[in-house]
Each structure stands twice: as C-alpha cells, then as structure tokens.
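We modelled the chain as a single entity of 163 amino acids. Its sequence is:
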Amino acid sequence: MFHEFVYQTRESWSRTRRVVAKAEYLEKGENPRFIVTSLDPERPAQPLYEEHYCARGDMENRIKEQLMLFSDRTSTAYLRSNQLRLYFSSLAYVLLQSLRRLGLEGTELAQAQCATLRLKLLKIGALIRITVRKVWVSLAGGYPYAELFRQIHAKLSAIPLKG
C-alpha cells in the first residue's frame, strides 16, 4: 500500500516536504519504507517509488556488488597498479553480468549476487586436461551444481560468435 503526506521536522527542515510511504507485510513481518522527495508533486506515489527510487537502490546494490569483486583493494602505493586492479574488477563484473544475462536466464541463480556466482560456479574443484583438439574440464564428483553448470555451458555454446 502506498500513501503520501507532507511532513516537517521541528528544527532541521526549513519547510514541509513530501513523504512517500510504502507499507507492506512480508513473511518476516512489517516492512515500512519512507522516502522524502522534492520530485514532481503531480507524479503518483507508487510509480515514483517503484520506477525512480527502487532503480536508484538497485544501482547502489550494483556498486556494492562491484566491491565484492575486490574493487576496494586499491592498497598499493602506485596509481597504475591500483588502476589495473579496478580495471580487472570492472571486467569481472561485466563478465558476470553477461553470464547472468546469457547463461543464467531462467535458472535459480539468475538473480544471484556476484559473490554467490563466484562461490557456486567459479570457485570449484576441477581437473583440466588440454589436448591438441580439446580442453577437458572434469568437475569434482561431489559438485552440487554440475547440472546447472552443464545447462549454462549449453546456453553459452549455442550463442554465435561475432567477428
């Protein structure tokens, strides 16, 4: 349920402001949300909340995801090495986004965070054998996501390469 009202603090705000409230009840209980906005007062509360502020929150979540890929590890004393780390982190994020979009669509991990994808799909034990014609990847026998891994491989293999 969405509602809006005007509100003013006793001391810190110089004027009244528009507040959009979202009231919902989830399995874990109440989940109220409030946003203070100066955006178009003619715009209804629900579209303003869902289309503008949820998108902003989602963008902030993507930034947090990038931090999970070690983009915050710029601890060397040299600009170039820190810049290289950021490039690698950005490239890893783009690759994982592509994996989500192309390989994970319709699977249980389609909306998973980068750290989850890294843990469940990339940090796995495997034996790699390289021959003249093929690269053989043998997953560990107890790997719980082997079937999902095969599905992703099949989806990605079906994509035609450009160039």
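As a brief sanity check on the tokenised model: The chain has a mean pLDDT of 86. Residues 45-71 form the longest helix (27 residues).
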